[in-house]
């Protein structure tokens, strides 16, 4: 087959994407590429398969894609462990104030040992709430359990008793999860139901010493409400690997807060995981072009 490649780590410019996709049978894209009606129209009726190198698919206009009978491949499972590791790392960095502490060492703020200086919150004997007990949510719980977590709560579209049994996790309404959890980790899929679910009402229900972590999608969180909650001491701290938009503008208010740790969407960023994602995305594309079953097809 003939391949046209955008050979850069930077996102393909919109005009280049629209011109390049014309008349193509397959498209391999990243989550930074917005595949909407305009792109599909530019591709024309020849486009048969789209393969995205991501587990998320909110950048794809699925309604339009389904209407046109285009198959979609994606890369679930292979990034579960890496994203779960990052979620735990971000939680620990946030609750134990690691970025603040590093900065204090660099700027001379470390003068002597002080009883309460740089104190944070520990996981031992805590209640952890997980929003979205899917593959990544389960992997996060599995890694947090040895820290001595007292209880796991989870919220989502439906209870999952067989899965939750491993962690003795209790299915609760999201309001109760907010009220009772010491740590909240968001790992759910972005859907119309989850968009903006972590909002003012949610943060107002949280404990003042609680820590909020989001490694799902930025749009699950109302960032203005999160900023207010952090500034006003409604919650203790937040750690985000995902934001709206991405990248977050350098003058965004959240970046001015010491109690908010923000990472550049690196949940799956290990060499092994990204290589596996690349191979799976390519194999999905090739299988779709041949009319064969994809290794990982998103059923529309």
UniProtKB/TrEMBL annotation:
Protein name: Glyoxylate reductase/hydroxypyruvate reductase
GO molecular function: glyoxylate reductase (NADPH) activity; hydroxypyruvate reductase (NADH) activity; NAD binding
PANTHER family linked to this entry: 2-HYDROXYACID DEHYDROGENASE-RELATED, GLYOXYLATE REDUCTASE_HYDROXYPYRUVATE REDUCTASE
Protein keywords: Oxidoreductase
Source lineage: Eukaryota, Metazoa, Chordata, Craniata, Vertebrata
Entry-linked PROSITE patterns: D_2_HYDROXYACID_DH_3
One annotated Gene Ontology cellular component of this protein: cytosol
Keyword Oxidoreductase annotated: yes
Residue ranges of every copy of the D-isomer specific 2-hydroxyacid dehydrogenase NAD-binding domain listed in the record: 88-267
UniProt KW Repeat keyword: no
Pfam families reported for this sequence: 2-Hacid_dh, 2-Hacid_dh_C
InterPro entries to which the protein is assigned, alphabetical: D-isomer_2-hydroxyacid_DH, D-isomer_2_OHA_DH_cat_dom, D-isomer_DH_CS, D-isomer_DH_NAD-bd, NAD(P)-bd_dom_sf
Family: Belongs to the D-isomer specific 2-hydroxyacid dehydrogenase family.
Gene name per UniProt: Grhpr_3
Source species of the chain: Casuarius casuarius (Southern cassowary)
Domain D-isomer specific 2-hydroxyacid dehydrogenase catalytic intervals: 11-297
Source domain of life: Eukaryota
């Amino acid at each position: 087959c003939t391949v046209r490649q955008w050979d850069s780590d930077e996102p393909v410019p919109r005009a280049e994407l629209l011109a390049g996709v014309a008349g193509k049978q397959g498209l391999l894209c990243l989550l930074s590429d917005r595949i909407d009606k305009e792109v599909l129209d530019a591709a024309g009726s020849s486009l048969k398969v789209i393969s995205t190198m991501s587990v998320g698919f909110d950048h794809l206009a699925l309604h339009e894609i389904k209407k046109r009978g285009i198959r979609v491949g994606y890369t679930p499972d292979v990034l579960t462990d890496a994203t779960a590791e990052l979620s735990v790392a971000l939680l620990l960095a946030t609750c134990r104030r690691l970025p603040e502490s590093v900065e204090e060492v660099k700027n001379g703020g470390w003068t002597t040992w002080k009883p309460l200086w740089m104190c944070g919150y520990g996981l031992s004997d805590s209640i952890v709430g997980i929003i979205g007990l899917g593959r990544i949510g389960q992997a996060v719980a599995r890694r947090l359990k040895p820290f001595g977590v007292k209880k796991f709560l989870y919220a989502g579209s439906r209870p999952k008793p067989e899965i939750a049994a491993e962690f003795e996790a209790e299915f609760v309404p999201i309001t109760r999860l907010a009220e009772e959890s010491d740590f909240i980790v968001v790992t759910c899929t972005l859907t119309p139901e989850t968009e903006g679910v972590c909002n003012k009402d949610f943060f107002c229900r949280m404990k003042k010493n609680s820590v909020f972590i989001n490694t799902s999608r930025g749009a699950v969180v109302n960032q203005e409400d999160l900023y207010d909650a952090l500034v006003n001491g409604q919650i203790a701290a937040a750690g985000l690997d995902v934001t709206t938009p991405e990248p977050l503008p350098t003058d965004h208010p959240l970046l001015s807060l010491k109690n908010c740790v923000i990472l550049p969407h690196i949940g799956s960023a290990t060499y092994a995981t990204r290589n596996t994602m690349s191979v799976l995305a390519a194999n999905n594309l090739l299988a779709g072009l041949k009319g064969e079953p994809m290794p990982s097809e998103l059923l529309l």
